[in-house]
Fold this sequence. Notes:
heterodimer, A: mainly alpha, D-Maltodextrin-Binding Protein, domain 2, 2 domains, two-stranded antiparallel sheet, elongated, B: Rossmann fold, four-stranded antiparallel beta sheet, globular
Amino acid sequence: MAKSNIAIVAGFEINRHLRRKSLWIFTLLVPIAIVAVGVISGFSSASADTAIAEQQDTQFSFEYIDASGLIDPTIATQLGGRLGSDSASGLDDVKNGRIEAFFDYPADPTQQPTEVSGADVGIIQNGRYAAVAVSLLRASVSAQVADPTVLSIIQTDPPVNATAYRDGQASAGLGQVVAPLLYIVLFFMAIVMLGNQMLSATLEEKENRVSEMILTTIDATSLLIGKVIGVVVVGLAQMLTLLVPSVAALLYFRDGFNLSGLDLGQLSFQPGPMTMGLLLLGGGLALYTACLVTIGAVMPTAQDASPAFSVVVLLCVMPLYAVVWVATNPGSGIVTGLTLFPLSAPITAMMRNALGVLPLWQGLLAVVELYVLAALVLALGARLFRYGSIAYSGRVNLKAALGRSKV
Amino acid sequence: MTGPVGQPVVRVENFRMVFGDHEVIKDLSFEVAPGETFGFLGSNGSGKTTTIRALLGIYLPTAGLLHVDGRPFRPSQTRELGYLPEERGLYKKEPVLRTMVYFGRLKGMSAAAAKRWSMDYLERVGLPDKALIRLDKLSGGQQQKVQLGVTIMNQPRLLILDEPTKGFDPVNRRLLMDLIDEQKRAGSTVIMVTHQMEEVERLCDRVILLKDGVARAYGSVTEVQEQFGGVTVKLAYQGQLPELPGCRQLTADQSGHVELGLPPGQDLAELLARLVASGVSVSAFTPSRRSLDSIFVEVYGRSAQEED
């Protein structure tokens, strides 16, 4: 009966969640928000590039003095400059408005700063003075290089083909990192999309005063398992709703998106990292879910549960802020600590696993720790829900719920 | 329930319940026999709901034995239990019919049977057009009807109703009582937690009266009435009542009405003769069994009655 009750609960949860308009509005708002952020970011970036280019091309009158001897007077004249007399008078002319800007190039511009002074034309536009000063220096130096190959190497990154070997085999490089990294994307999406639903799974009974009816009808563990299954299935439906059209669009319009360089054939699905990543993803989701369900079991309302919910989410995504540290110092104590601390373990370990810098023992330890802790926390949540869920208006008394044995 | 013949459906022995420093139930024992309607009486805060919650495993008892059908209650026994809690609520954003079918399936009914039963029930209680409406769009009384339907939809052998008439208007209260009566006639064991004494006198075979966590009275309605004075006389009179040895004044008002509790063996004719002989003008002399209401008032005092 317990198994069939789990299925009934899961079916009920799936059915009612999938029928909610708000769920689909939220689901569709996520990609819209991502696209909007991308468009704004791209527009902003393009705008910044344009602004910098425009500043470099801006024509304004300036004087300069050159202790380095590197500045080409012809180029300086083309940019609107003329040679000045000395630093002090140049600065005075700027202050008095006689000239728009004054550049003081030192003897060694690589070691000493070039002093740039100009009339204040606004915090953004003021950047044009430094831009033109640097542009003039670079153009003057480049003009002294006769060989176009040398010039090209100086001005651009020459192409390189790099191959790394492990155990005598050529590494797939970025291709082997991308696939296991997708587990982090899935984990992050689960946190964003399922968090509130997981939390409300146990709060709902309290908020609707259903606890007594439901707890005399089905045991708490079956109820919670059914709810978790239901919410996970709903989450998968949401993810598929986002992923399937996204991937289809990506593949169909790859030329239009200027992604012709994307070669899916280079993706490497190595069994070891993929299996470890899958285990970490499952364990991470299990622990995350168990924590939220337990918070819901203890708190009387969603509002009361919010701070604890935020702490759990923050601890889960914390390693994303340390991604550079994890990549560059994978063997450090801090990274090892993040790998073994339960809530930060999933993302840290998945990241290190993808980068090929996760020792097997640490990976296995993290996996075992995640699953065992998830089971313990879920059992705790079930007990708290069982004996504390009719604390409708206040937090569950943990001592009362845990301290007594059943007669 | 399906226990051995003669075994009580509910058995509570030496039950104690302590919340923090407050001992809500001190030492409570009682049994409920198969097929009987049992009244669980007491004022607010007397421990009635606490006892039911402990009986159904919602609270962990501090001490004592609480058995349903010979063992501590487990949700797996839900197929034969109908429980209407004091704190009521269903999934408010779900339609009526889907909610009822959900609970029906959890209670072991097939989806089709649960749907069929639910539609019949909604028809009976005047809500057939609400089947597809969200619960929070219904009035409080309509929600109560749905909740009662969920409680009895599996034809439970044990029906526990905690303040069943709470939130019902007089018309719907009658409907509710009819439904309970039907369950009783179908052989269900019914436990009613209430402080509505008229309902108890009309429906219950036996009662327990709780105050401050201990039973102040326990037995059949008649036994409890006997325990608290048995026969009473309601008098309408004019004049000064004489000293009446052994008689207790249970209720009285300013307009010459009084209810007297009589001592065991009191001769009614002799009492009336004494009243008349003392010069009291008696316009009504109505002997009756003592009402549970007056027993309740005696146990709890006026304040409890006013509180209700």
